[in-house]
Amino acid sequence: MxxxxxxxxxxxxxxRIRGVYVLVVHDPTVDVQALCDTxxxxxxxxxVTTAFEALERLSGAPLACVVCVIGGAIHAEDFxxxxxxxxxxxxxxxxxxxxxxxEAAFLKSSGAHWLPNKAAEPQEVLAQVRAVAAxx
Length: 136
Fold this sequence. Notes:
By secondary structure, the chain is α/β, with parallel strands linked by helices. It has helices spanning 33-39, 51-58, 76-86, 104-110, 122-133; strands at 21-25, 44-48, 65-70, 94-98, 113-115. Strand 4, helix 4 (104-110) and strand 5 (113-115) form a beta-alpha-beta unit. Mean pLDDT is 80; it is low at 1-14.
C-alpha cells in the first residue's frame, strides 16, 4: 500500500496505478529508455533532463519515487542537496542509479536509496522503486 492517497485506484492492463508517478531524472546524453520501460511495468513514468525540471515536478503532486540516474551533468550529492532544500518531503523518495559507481562513497554515507549499477536486473530495479514508493 502506498503511503499517500491515490485519487484513481484503477489499474491499467499492465498493473500500473493511474496517478502514481515515478520521475526519472537524467542527463540528456544518458539513455534511460530501458530503465523507463522497466519502471513502467508498475508505475506511470515521466522523464526530465535537468535538476531544475525535476524541482518543478517535485512542487506538484507527490511522486512515488524520483529515480536519479547519475552521469553527465547529474551528480548525486548536488541533486540530493537541492531536493533536500527545495522539497524535503520528497528527499526520502530518491533512488539513485550510479552507472559507474563513481559516487558510491557519498551514497553509502548519505543513507540514500541507490542501485550501484545501471545494468541491474529489471525486476531488481522495479522492486527497489516499489520499496522506495512504499517508504522502505
